[in-house]
Amino acid sequence: MSDNVIRTAVLLLCWALSFCATGCDKKDAPDQDKRLTVAVIPKGTIHEFWKTVHAGAEMAGREMGVDILWKGSLKEDDREAQISVVENIMTRGVDGIVLAPLDDAALRRPVDEAMRSNIPVVIFDSGLQGENYVSYVATDNFKAGQLAGEYMARLLEGRGKVIVLRYAEGSDSTTKREDGFLDAIEAFEGIEIVSSNQYAGVTTASALKAAENILSRFGRADGGLEIDGIFCATEPTTLGILRALQDTGFAGKLKFVGFDSSEKMIAALRAGELHGFVVQNPMRIGYLGVKTLVEHLRGGHPARRIALVTEANLDQPEIRDLLNPDLTERLK
What we know:
Elements: H1 3-7, E1 12-13, E2 17-19, E3 37-41, H2 48-64, E4 67-70, H3 79-90, E5 96-99, H4 108-116, E6 121-124, E7 135-139, H5 141-155, E8 160-166, H6 172-185, E9 191-199, H7 204-217, E10 229-231, H8 235-248, E11 255-259, H9 263-271, E12 276-279, H10 282-297, E13 310-311, H11 317-323
Parallel strand pairs: 1-12, 3-4, 3-5, 5-6, 6-7, 8-9, 8-10, 10-11, 11-12
Antiparallel strand pairs: 1-13, 2-7
Helix pairs in contact: 2-10, 5-6, 7-8
């Protein structure tokens, strides 16, 4: 892929953050002098996205004079482990919880219990069923998926066969991204979605296996593929599919749009093996999750706000900072 192609916006950038205030009751007569402890519970702790969220949460903690307790499981599909984390955190006397639910239904009960125990909860990154939480801070995931779908359609010039390899059942954020992608593709009569009901799982290894299976399914007798494009909605899924395409010799031979970013994804983008990805602002998400909860704890009124969704290119300074944030100082 030439530098000229890279400069013409092969990277999709999504900065859409929504703040959904629910009007839940606050703790009575907040003590403004008390040193607060806020627990931040991500979906996982391994991937670059969550490391950057952590840095944003710590930044907010320092600015607002709040202690951050960062606690998450390694696997992003272990619902019971995350439920246990929430329950254990409640016994530690924290003032509030910022939670990215692994499952939009399974985490509803522990969140209800926290709210009943006067431990307010802000939901971030991925939604939760019901309304029993303080606020919701997340990317506009449906819009982000639409952005990816529109970009895929441009890559294919409105014609071709496309696969959506889904992430995991019960994950609100990724389901909305996938549904947004499909919604955007519906506007293009020349594009056919040939598969959208297969799940890649939450790890790069599981995504590799799922991608190998689906590529085999759509292989032609002459060694080619019957598909022209593929979309997935997370960093580990993107990396797993990328590995499968590289191993089978198809990298760069079909249009590939992913989600979130990492050094390997940026390298693949420059090599023409990945044609674009939607990027969130995880630093901002972590920062605002904590800030929103602290504002609530101190008697404030978190408001509903929506920032923009835009497109940008890889070589703009602000995009380089977003893709390669310096986390060293921020996690000290």
